[in-house]
Design a protein that fits this description.
- The chain is an alpha/beta fold.
- It has nine helices and 15 strands.
- The strands form three sheets. Strands 3, 4, 5, 6, 7, 14 and 15 form a seven-stranded mixed beta sheet that branches. Strands 10-9-8-11-12-13 form a six-stranded parallel beta sheet, with helices on both faces. The chain has a two-stranded antiparallel sheet with strand order 1-2.
- Strand 14, helix 9 and strand 15 form a beta-alpha-beta unit.
- Helix 2 packs across helix 8.
- The two termini are 18 Å apart.
Amino acid sequence: MHVQRILFNSRPGNNGAPAPENFRLEDTSLQPDLSEGEVLVRTLYLSVDPYMRCRMNEDTGAGYLTPWRPSEVVDGGGVGRVEASRWDGLAPGDVVTCFNWPWATHGVLKGSALQKMDPQLVDGHLSHLLGVVGLTGLTALLGIREKGHVTQGANQTLVVSGAAGACGSIAGQVGRLDGCSRVLGICGSQEKCAALVDELGFTAAINYRHDDVDACLKECCPDGVDVYFDNVGGAISDAVISQMNSGGHVVLCGQISQYNKDVPYPPPLDPRTQETLLCQGITRERFTVLSHMDQMDAALLQLSTWVRTGQLKVRETVVDGLENMGVAFCSMMEGGNIGKQIIKVSD
């Protein structure tokens, strides 16, 4: 069987920014002679996500993430169909997903590593299993609920950075649905600002490349900030935290502005920001969705219900072709996507 796959070609250069050349397309063959417990899958969709930049380093900075190794097949979130199975729980035609799907057109995986999914959960939109009704949606929903402490009727203000990205675009909507009276998104273009307000139901949006972030925060959040869903870190987060109310909560989801730098994760804070957290009694806790998988089924059902009833809107940026994985990854790291960045591999 002819197979195409993506190998990790090299680690990023001295400036830390990834390039498409860090990945390499290879044509090879796959012998689909399955051993007991193995499953042959055909890849439908693959996901690229900011955390993957950490996997390009020799040390990922996170114990739950393994680094990609040069000349080995890259892996990440994926969804596909079973073509042959020697695992009792799966049959040809089943839709399956896992967190460590190989970047390849086909693969032989252990059946025990795959999760069978019901296409009706996403009304047949199988790419949503990698986004809004997948790990991304779980991160947004459980991050808001476990670390954001949103309370119905409390008139809370939520700010989301990286708000037009995969997780941020969902987190803002979850905050609104869970009771926040004001939801402000920070993103990097006027097109993204318009999408947040006109399509996704954010109260307002700031273009950090064009607007005065401090001034806009004061204007858009006249009662201060109660919850901050942080996807970016750096100067933007310093600005938001400086305007947070006492007893507020920072949901530390990601730090994409820092991923190309040689710093630990989470990166060290500006001393003034650290002092604000301490003096104002603001919690800032790292959130890892894998620590809350006991809540996965109920959370996925909630996300699915919201999407199917139109309460939760979905934006995706879809690129066709496995050969474009490297370009799509680098575009996502530079903010080229609105919503989830997806690569369609096959129908």
